[in-house]
Every structure is written in structure tokens, then in C-alpha cells.
Design brief:
This protein is an alpha+beta fold. The chain has one domain. The radius of gyration is 18 Å and the shape is globular. The protein starts with a helix and ends in an 8-residue tail after the last strand.
């Protein structure tokens, strides 16, 4: 019994330590939003206009989620434009759609780089040019085959980031390194015996128990430990640190506002 109490103390202390980043961001005003109905949904002007970029283009975006949840997590999505297409197609999972009895999977023509209800998105991955049309076709097929479209849970998953990670595994060319703030990316269907999988970048492997306890090791991602959905890690090849709530710090590209 004493050992159990000691273990629980360590567990609570670890969780509180991992929560420092999100709570600091919350207090500092890094999350929030007063009214989703009036929050900005305009273009961030990151993606090129189709007329200015006739080549095939695949992009992945991440933006802080709305309200207090933004202190902890981002929402991620794909935006694609085949060769000579006149508009972008966006692939994402949106929770309220499932909560109203439908599919959370949304595939629609839209601005690729919309603010996510007041939060500016960051471009986290991109492919362009020759051969990308074939990758876009595989992305479409993988998205439509996503098996958890009606099983949405904000935490620990499956959610929008579970979807992005799931599709990313079908696109090895993308080498998708999702930010540590993409809570849900590590969710695996342990109920059906899925405890082990390739990382979303396809450069390593991960083990996870329903996205609440896990370990990820990959060439692209580095080393990540997931506790209660909060990820801490290090990317040795990029000299970057990954912290809950804060995101990725350092590396070749410096600090990323994830």
C-alpha cells in the first residue's frame, strides 16, 4: 500500500510538472477567444493562390484550438491542390459534426490556410511539384478510409490529430512530424489490440495505450514520451526540445509557434 501511495505521488507530481507549459500559456493569454461565431476565419495568406501556383501542392497546417483548450492543443488539417486545380480541397476532422450524429470527417473546398476561429495557422509540412498528384490521390483514399470518423473524443482521442497522424502514415514522402501539442496524434486503438504502430513520419515506431501513456522513437520526430496526452521529447538531429503546451523549441528553424 505504501508503494502504491508513493507511485501515485510521483504520478501526480509528473502530471503537474508537465502541465506547467499549458498553464503558463493560459495565464499569459496564449489561448482563449470570446465568441466562436465572430472569431476570424480569414486566410492567413500562407498558401499561394491557385492561379499563381499551377503545380500540385500538398500542405499540412496546425493552429491552436479555440478557448482554454488552445493552451494545451492544436487542430491540424490537410490542404491539397492538384495540378492546374482552381481551388483547394481541405481534409480535416471536426468534432461537433460527430457530436450531432454525423461523421466528423470533412472533405470540402475551402481556403487552405484559414484562421482556426481566431488562431493563425502554421504550415508544418509541404510537398509540391512532380509526383505530388499521386500523393494527393493516396491522401484522398486514406482519408476516406479513416475508421474513426464517428468515434470523436477531444481527449485522448480519436480526434482531429488522430486523423492527421493516421493519414500521415499512408504518405511516407511527407515525413510528417506533428507538433507535441497535437494531442491525439499518439492515440492507437488499444481496444482492438493496436498498441504498436509506425510513427506518422514513417521513420520510426511508437507504442501507446489509448494515447494516455506511450513512447515514440523516430528519425524525424526524435524521442517523445506521452503521459496523459501531454508530450515531452527531444529531437537530437534537429537540436530541438518538445514541451507540453509550449510546442517545439529550438532546432534548425528556431522556435515554432505551435
Amino acid at each position: 500500500m505504501r508503494k502504491l501511495r508513493k507511485f501515485m505521488v510521483y504520478l501526480v507530481a509528473t502530471f503537474l510538472l508537465l502541465s506547467v507549459g499549458p498553464l503558463t500559456k493560459l495565464v499569459a493569454g496564449g489561448a482563449g477567444g470570446s465568441d466562436w461565431r465572430t472569431a476570424s476565419r480569414e486566410s492567413a495568406r500562407i498558401a499561394p493562390l491557385p492561379a499563381d501556383h499551377p503545380e500540385a501542392l500538398l500542405q499540412v497546417y496546425a493552429a491552436r484550438t479555440f478557448s482554454w483548450r488552445g493552451a494545451f492543443a492544436v487542430h491540424t488539417w490537410f490542404a491539397v491542390k492538384p495540378t492546374d486545380a482552381e481551388q483547394y480541397t481541405v481534409y480535416e476532422v471536426i468534432g461537433w459534426r460527430a457530436r450531432h450524429g454525423g461523421s466528423a470527417l470533412a472533405i470540402h473546398h475551402d481556403l487552405p490556410d484559414r484562421y482556426w476561429f481566431g488562431k493563425r495557422p502554421d504550415l508544418i509540412a509541404e510537398l509540391s511539384g512532380a509526383g505530388v498528384d499521386a500523393v494527393i490521390e493516396r491522401l484522398d483514399a486514406a482519408a476516406r478510409a479513416y475508421p474513426y470518423a464517428t468515434a470523436y473524443r477531444t481527449w485522448p482521442g480519436p480526434n482531429s490529430n488522430t486523423f492527421t497522424a493516421w493519414v500521415g502514415r499512408a504518405l511516407p514522402e511527407l515525413a510528417l512530424d506533428l507538433p507535441p501539442t497535437a494531442i491525439g496524434k499518439d492515440w492507437l486503438d488499444a481496444g482492438n489490440g493496436e498498441l504498436f504502430a509506425e510513427t506518422p513520419s514513417n521513420t520510426g515506431y511508437q507504442v501507446s495505450l489509448f494515447g494516455v501513456l506511450g513512447l515514440l522513437i523516430g528519425v524525424e520526430e526524435g524521442i517523445e514520451i506521452n503521459i496523459a496526452g501531454l508530450t515531452v521529447g527531444i529531437d537530437p538531429l534537429d537540436l530541438a526540445l518538445k514541451l507540453p503546451g509550449v510546442g517545439r523549441i529550438g532546432g534548425i528553424d528556431g522556435v515554432r509557434a505551435e
